[in-house]
Amino acid sequence: MDNPQRSNLEIRPVPGHDGYFCREDGAIFSTRRNTWKQLTEQTIHNGYKRVYFRVNGKCVLYLVHRIVALTFIGEPPQPGMEVNHKDGNKANNHKDNLEYVTRSGNQKHAFANGLNDASGESNANHKLTTEEVIEIYNRRFENTTDLMEEFGVCRSAIVRIKTKKAWSKLLKDL
């Protein structure tokens, strides 16, 4: 590959990793074998991209967005801060799309932009299926205790479904 320094995109050394360079668009390069080589990115199950660096003879995994943030934004202003993709696209690792935020800020951004919907069956703690919730709602005039026993959930779960306080997106048109 040609030297990426010849392009009009800014490229900087990755702090703390001799022989590795990061371009502002998120491309990562190595010069460890005396030639420019773009590292192959892998997309992992949650949509983030990663690359491997060779560190002390071992392969070490790094998330691309974190490398770009470290290289172009600097160290996080406080310990524990996370890198947020402003546009919500985990594949867009351009320096202008990244910012440091708190965990809470990252979650608020995700919910506000529809990137993290923990409602209904998307909620990791759900016990009922969509079909079961609709059935409970359709049977809302039946005895709550009977519904609790049949569906194996607590009283408040049944009452919240009956009153549309739980699963509100699903039940709003019923």
What does this protein structure show overall?
The chain is an alpha+beta fold and 174 residues long. The chain contains 6 helices and 9 strands. The strands form 3 sheets. Strands 1-2-3-4 form a 4-stranded antiparallel sheet, covered by helices on one side. The protein has a 3-stranded antiparallel sheet with strand order 5-6-7. A hairpin with a 6-residue loop joins strand 3 and strand 4. The longest helix has 10 residues.
In short:
The protein is of the alpha+beta class. The chain is 28% helix and 20% strand.
How large is the count of helical segments?
Answer: 6
Low-confidence stretches: none
Helix share, percent: 25-40%
State the end-to-end CA separation.
Answer: 59 Å
Beta-strand percent range: 15-25%
What class do helices, strands and sheet pairing give?
Answer: alpha+beta
- What's the arrangement of strands in the largest beta sheet? 1-2-3-4
Radius of gyration: 24 Å
Largest sheet properties:
4 strands, antiparallel
The coarse silhouette is: elongated
The helix/strand order is EEEEEEEHEEHHHHH
Mean pLDDT across the residues is 89
- Strand elements, count: 9
Blueprint of the fold:
Layout: E1 11-13, E2 20-23, E3 28-30, E4 37-38, E5 42-43, E6 49-55, E7 58-63, H1 64-72, E8 82-85, E9 98-101, H2 103-112, H3 130-138, H4 144-151, H5 155-162, H6 168-171
Antiparallel strand pairs: 1-2, 2-3, 3-4, 5-6, 6-7, 8-9
Helix pairs in contact: 4-5
Features:
alpha+beta, three-stranded antiparallel sheet, 174 residues
